Amino acid sequence: MLKLVMMPLLCGCVLLVDGPAPAQEPAPDCKAPQTQTDMTICAGQDLADADSALNVQYQATRKVMKSRDADAVSEDQKGAEAALLKAQRAWIVYRDAECDLRGYQARGGSMEPMLVSNCAADLTRERTKDLKALAENL
């Protein structure tokens, strides 16, 4: 006959106490960053701003391309929107590879992320201008 032995179930519980949170660091002054950490944070913010502007312009250019496709008189004149998407995807691969390469100036150092972000922000602003010009010239 099989005897079942009841064993008490032990619960390894952790009591979480709401203690004082570490003080938040103030946002760096990106007009005059003082430390490498601040410069890296500011470069990241600059890239985020440039990326937001690019996304706005990309959508505007895409709308122009879509309209051009809709107005095309023959099928062989269509495809502007698809070509834009293909070009944008290729550009992102290029930008990321180029900026990774530029980061090698300080490979493994604290400056590397800043260099990569600065590069990406610069190339992103250039791309935004290119997309604007493309939309205006069609």
Architecture overview:
This protein starts with 35 loop residues before the first helix and ends with a helix. The protein has helices spanning 36-71, 80-103, 112-136. The chain is mostly helical and 138 residues long. The chain is built from 3 helices and no strands. 62% of the residues lie in helices and 0% in strands. The radius of gyration is 26 Å and the shape is elongated. α1 packs antiparallel against α2, α1 runs parallel beside α3 and α2 runs antiparallel to α3. It has a domain at 36-72 and 79-136: Substrate Binding Domain Of Dnak, Chain:A, Domain 2, CATH 1.20.1270.180.
In a few lines, what is going on in this structure?
The chain has 138 residues and is mostly helical. The protein has 3 helices and no strands.
Helical percent range?
Answer: 55-70%
Unreliable stretches (pLDDT < 50, length at least 5) are 4-19
Class based on secondary structure composition and strand pairing: mainly alpha
Strand and helix order: HHH
Kindly provide the name of the CATH class of the domain at 36-72 and 79-136. Mainly Alpha
Number of strands: 0
CATH topology of the domain at 36-72 and 79-136: Substrate Binding Domain Of Dnak, Chain:A, Domain 2
What's the oligomerization state? single chain
Mean pLDDT: 88
Radius of gyration: 26 Å
Biggest sheet, in brief? Answer: none
